[in-house]
């Protein structure tokens, strides 16, 4: 049987054998496994743990199930760099363990020679491999590897070591056996649910529960409507074709058609985000929010929910249910009444004590006591079980928390909660879900959020830059800047706009304009600069000679890549790992990469990027960038002496907040939602 046959739905095996196969596959993996197969096994193990009620095991296996190949890339690149700097490394890596064996078992030279003669080459290699040590590697590098150190205890240890300000959430698509059987364009739309794993959270950190996971139905659609995945990929294809054909517009009618298509695509993206908010996430969007900076709100929410539980006599709710209710009530100002009631019902029923519900279950025709998860039961059975377990009707319980939500939404003493500032959210997003604009949903729209590939790389980058991390932010400077603008010499108006901006606002920066840097210059920029700005086609890595050159050259700068699809995951074939510029830059050590998820138009992106940079990067200019006259900006001419002098907008030292504010500088949702940040939250100390 081929190894991937285990991961199809074409064979039927008993549950014990199935679990043994999964555990054996996960345990007996090679040092550098094939990423997609490893991810498949981990997803299946996570789903099994969720059915068994093992929340910590479920979260751990899901954490292992994303971007496994990136870990292999980092391990390989680190080894290649060490070999390049030390030609004897392969030999010396074996000398230490062999020397220890000789010293522990003293023998004459003749005895040693006799022993070596008796052992063939293969056995000698096997013995040396078995005793080879990596004791020189720090833990954050060892955890990148695929070894016994990747376990639940170390996973929990990592979560405790991460900055307490961060909320770390993972969004994972379920395992789909059709990855082995269908073309990528077919199976990528077959996502019927999302697993939302909460690794760290304001209320979770105070409990003994540990990381947990909930399953959210997704891709549901009304009759006559397209499934959301199908609609998203369709509008992105249309967006690409529209922008690609813009160069052929040679009369007024074609220009009008172009703008009509752009407006239609924009409306469709707005609809996608609306469905994500209302139909997918609903009240579960409350779990995506960051920790409140003002801790008094947290204590007030906890006491209010606890008072409601005791006042209504709703005893017997478990710790997970209480944490979910805390988060829901905290986010209720931005949720509709229907979203709140639906989520309250699911919290009270689908996340109750499984065994107590099983004992209380009186099966109807469609339900069985052999269920794995409570969401497999019908609403009627769930209501009866809830009443039997809690001696309280489900309708009254929903009413109790709905009234509390109305009180929080309408009462004056809670009025400022909606706008209260929050600490950053780190979103770990599965490859299958990465195209969606999560940052544009209601839960994250007003708050700082950054994406990361997996817990392993989040921890790795954090430890790599730990000396410069304070209060949950990588502390950077905006003083030393480098830029590459229009290296392919075919975006003249963009070149004039961005050149005029950097010469006005970032006058001390230097770089290349209208010409391509040499690979050596490009790598030099990445290592010299605090901020590196690229404006051109794509991500710019080809200027360095490719992603592998970037990995080997290193990067210390915060990178802003203002090109079409500059941080898009490119996955051309099924079962093939994705490629992307930010993956190479993170391997190289860059703390943060800002870029675009899909094709964009240069003028609107220039507005967003310059607004973000003007908020984040300090400047000596008296006139704020927002007040600069831009009537002739595309000709490289800006007016720095308009009538009146408006108040200068406050400097925003946090890059994620500056990015959030900059999204409002364009009227196109397709542009605003395309710009995302990947990496550690960054703060400018100037």
Automatic annotation (TrEMBL):
Q: Name one GO molecular function term.
A: cysteine-type endopeptidase activity
**In its UniProt record, which GO terms are filed under biological process?**
meiotic chromosome separation; proteolysis
Q: Which Pfam families match?
A: Separin_C
Reaction catalysed by this enzyme: All bonds known to be hydrolyzed by this endopeptidase have arginine in P1 and an acidic residue in P4. P6 is often occupied by an acidic residue or by a hydroxy-amino-acid residue, the phosphorylation of which enhances cleavage
GO cellular component annotations, sorted alphabetically? centrosome; cytoplasm; mitotic spindle; nucleus
What is the name listed in the Swiss-Prot or TrEMBL entry for this protein? Answer: separase
The Peptidase C50 domain sits at 478-575
Q: Which InterPro entries match?
A: Peptidase_C50, SEPARIN_core_dom
Keywords noted in UniProt: Chromosome partition, Hydrolase
Q: What is its EC number?
A: 3.4.22.49
């Amino acid at each position: 049987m081929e190894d991937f046959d285990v991961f199809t739905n074409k064979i039927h095996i008993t549950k014990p054998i199935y679990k043994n196969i999964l555990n054996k596959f996960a345990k007996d993996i090679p040092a550098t496994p094939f990423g997609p197969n490893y991810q498949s096994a981990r997803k299946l193990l996570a789903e099994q743990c969720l059915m068994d009620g093992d929340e910590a095991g479920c979260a751990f296996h899901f954490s292992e199930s994303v971007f496994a190949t990136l870990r292999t890339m980092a391990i390989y690149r680190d080894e290649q760099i060490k070999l390049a700097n030390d030609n004897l490394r392969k030999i010396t890596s074996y000398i230490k363990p062999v020397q220890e064996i000789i010293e522990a078992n003293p023998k004459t030279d003749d005895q040693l020679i006799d022993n070596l003669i008796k052992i063939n080459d293969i056995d000698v290699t096997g013995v040396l491999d078995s005793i080879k040590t990596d004791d020189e590697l720090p833990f954050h590098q060892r955890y990148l590897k695929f070894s016994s150190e990747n376990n639940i205890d170390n996973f929990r240890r990592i979560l405790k070591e991460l900055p307490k300000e961060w909320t770390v959430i993972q969004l994972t698509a379920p395992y789909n056996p059709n990855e082995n059987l269908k073309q990528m364009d077919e199976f990528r739309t077959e996502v019927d649910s999302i697993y939302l794993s909460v690794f760290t959270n304001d209320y979770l950190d105070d409990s003994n529960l540990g990381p947990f996971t909930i399953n959210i139905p997704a891709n549901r659609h009304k009759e006559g409507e397209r499934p959301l995945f199908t609609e998203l990929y369709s509008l992105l294809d249309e967006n690409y074709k529209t922008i690609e054909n813009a160069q052929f517009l040679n009369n007024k009618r074609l220009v009008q058609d172009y703008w009509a298509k752009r407006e239609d695509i924009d409306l469709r993206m707005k609809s996608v985000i609306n469905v994500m908010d209302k139909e997918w996430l609903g009240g579960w969007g409350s779990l995506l929010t960051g920790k409140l900076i003002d801790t008094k709100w947290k204590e007030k929410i906890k006491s209010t929910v606890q008072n409601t539980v005791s006042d209504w006599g709703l005893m017997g709710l478990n710790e997970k249910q209480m944490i979910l209710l805390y988060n829901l009530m905290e986010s209720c100002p931005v949720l509709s009444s229907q979203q709140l009631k639906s989520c309250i019902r699911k919290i009270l029923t689908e996340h109750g004590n499984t065994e107590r519900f099983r004992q209380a279950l009186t099966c109807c025709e469609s339900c069985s006591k052999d269920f794995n998860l409570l969401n497999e039961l019908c609403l009627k059975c769930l209501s009866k079980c809830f009443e039997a377990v809690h001696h309280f009707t489900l309708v009254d319980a929903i009413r109790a928390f709905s009234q509390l939500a109305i009180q929080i939404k309408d009462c004056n003493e809670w009025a400022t909660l909606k706008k209260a500032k929050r600490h950053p959210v780190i979103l770990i997003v599965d490859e299958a879900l990465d195209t969606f604009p999560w940052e544009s949903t209601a839960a994250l729209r007003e708050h700082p959020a950054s994406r990361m590939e997996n817990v392993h790389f989040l921890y790795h980058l954090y430890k790599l830059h730990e000396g410069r991390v304070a209060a949950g932010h990588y502390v950077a400077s905006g003083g030393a800047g480098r830029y590459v603008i229009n290296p392919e010499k075919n975006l003249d108006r963009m070149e004039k706009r961005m050149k005029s901006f950097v010469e006005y606002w970032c006058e001390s920066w230097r770089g290349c304009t209208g010409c391509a840097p040499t690979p050596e210059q490009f790598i030099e920029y990445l290592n010299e600069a605090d901020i590196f700005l690229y404006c051109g086609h794509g991500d710019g890595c080809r200027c360095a000679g490719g992603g592998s050159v970037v990995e080997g050259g290193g990067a210390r700068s915060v990178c802003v890549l203002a090109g079409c699809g500059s941080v898009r995951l490119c996955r051309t074939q099924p079962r093939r790992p994705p490629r992307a510029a930010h993956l190479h830059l993170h391997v190289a050590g860059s703390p943060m990469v800002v870029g675009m998820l899909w094709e964009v138009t240069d003028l609107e992106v220039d507005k967003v990027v310059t607004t973000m940079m003007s908020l984040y990067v300090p400047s000596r200019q008296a006139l704020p960038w927002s007040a600069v006259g831009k009537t002739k900006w595309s000709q490289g001419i800006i007016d720095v002496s308009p009538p009146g002098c408006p108040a200068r907008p406050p400097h925003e030292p946090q890059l994620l907040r500056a990015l959030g504010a900059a999204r409002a500088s364009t009227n196109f949702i397709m542009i605003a939602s395309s710009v995302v940040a990947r990496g550690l939250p960054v703060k400018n100390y100037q």
